[in-house]
Design a protein that fits this description.
The complex is a heterodimer of chains A (about 280) and B (about 325). Chain A contains eight helices and ten strands. Chain A has about 280 residues and is of the alpha/beta class. Chain A has two domains: about 55 residues, no CATH class; about 220 residues, 2-enoyl-CoA Hydratase, Chain A, domain 1, CATH 3.90.226.10. In chain A, α4 packs parallel to α5. The termini of chain A are far apart. Chain B has two domains: about 45 residues; about 250 residues, 2-enoyl-CoA Hydratase, Chain A, domain 1, CATH 3.90.226. In chain B, α4 packs across α13 and α6 runs parallel beside α8. The chains are: A alpha/beta (about 280), B alpha/beta (about 325). At the A-B interface, α4, α5, β9 and α6 of A face α7, α8, α9, α10 and α11 of B.
Amino acid sequence: MAWFKRSKENISTEKPKQDLPDGMWVKCDSCNELMHKKQWETNKFVCLKCSNHFRIGSNEYFKILLDEGSFKEMDRRIRSIDILNFTDSKSYAKRIDDAINKTKLYDAIRTGTGKIKGIDIAIGCMDFAFIGGSMGSVVGEKVARIIDKSIRTRFPLIIISQSGGARMQEAAVSLMQLAKTSSRLAKLAEEKIPYISILTNPTTGGASASYSMLGDINIAEPNALIGFAGPRVIRQATGKDLPVGFQRSEFILEHGFLDLIVDRRDMREKLSQLLNLFAN
Amino acid sequence: MPLTTLDFEKPIVELEQKMEEMRKMADGLDLSSEINKLETKIIELRKSIFKNLTPWQIVQLARHPERPYTLDYIYLMTENFIELHGDRNFRDDKAMVGGFATLGDKTVMLIGQQKGRDTKSNLYRNFGMSNPEGYRKALRLMKLAEKFEKPVITLIDTPGAFPGIEAEERGQAEAIARNLLEMSRLQVPLIVAIIGEGASGGALGIGIGDKVLMLEYCWYSVISPESCSSILWRSWDYKEQAAEASKLTAKDLLKLGIIDRIIPEPLGGAHRNHKEAADILKQALLEELETISKIKKNRLLDYRIKKFNVMGYFK
């Protein structure tokens, strides 16, 4: 018998290396679990093992939340113009063109009407893939218009946020979108039409300092980063280590700024329940 | 003589010193014609330098440590100011001040961010960076004014809302968002004046109004030129380009329809003459209040919401 016993196994790769057939498998960036793409999609793009909520776009959310075929998109082709003539490493005009080509979206939000278990709603969903879900003139205008639609039709409003903040290339014009959307929401509030805000990973900066935080009901997906300043900025400004779980959904709920945290797989059910409570 | 001189102010200050010396040297001699010449030269020089300021130079002026701050303006413009404290919820935020005062012959509510002048007072004022309780205090005071039908005037001067751990815990984003919504439907006249730095959501958190005025040498944007440089250029060295690109000066913002009126500053900037700067601002505020008071109450809110609703450029 040996004097010393090895308590740990030798360092080895957890799983034998596999060649992934292109597009068939997905790896969880949180727990490294390999999943078959079909399985993962059926699971609403949530990891089968650790429930990590993968970031998904408006297409996927509309499919997950709305009754099949009920989504009618509005204002699809509105796009930004480079009013400031802004150029950093590339011109803003070029940046927009590139983003449109890459994502096949026109800006960082899509809006329209649809149904959740037969209940009509007005809905907007942001896309992080489009310049970090940044909020500029187009996002502001489309949010304002979907609020108007909600007022005209009296359909409850749902907005799914996913944004790094205001779009710097539109400078003060993008800042004014906070004012524009919030003042529109004041109108919606006067009309007593329910507004449910769904915050997904991440919702920070301009979006969180305007419509994302102003829901009659604020719901977040689990473990989403939610806050005003980003963690890097806070670490820099304060020189302090950030607490574990800082600015995550559970932390934000604990501090009183969320009503609910809802797993994406239960979201449609929960929304229909809420909508019914408001309606009846 | 100012204690702090910005680079581009140096030629002016040098001439001023020369003039000062000449005055001392004169000692019975009649140098008045020389002195007068020099004086005209100084004015000319100042005019020519201040006519062609770059956006970055304007940012520097907006941050000039001898610039009048919110409380300076309040004391110089009004009588009977009584500062009111606290958000009735958590704490009194020293970076946000406010209270009733008499402007002209009427009672108004004045609210604004307050910076400090030296290290000690800057720590006390948190460099003019409010925590959520600051925005909630501002809102409480606005609601108080609304209850007693007094107009509200806000003065913006902040390098941003405070990016701290506790600020996040207490809901910085929610506090600002709530103010935007509530200010949009506040049932009294609401005038905003940017008197120094207008940085991002921290500024906008008290920045919704029927009229938005901006002093000549101020900046207002979604992010400071330094942070913009660090994010978009991935280096701190492009602040001047960032200032240029962001169109953050009063002139640019007037063209973009984001502000309504530029308030001129005394020659050389507000820091050269606090009293004159305050008098000019006071005059403008009285004029604007007069105009707004003629608008029917039920229309006022529609106008206010419409004003912000047309902002944005798209096709």
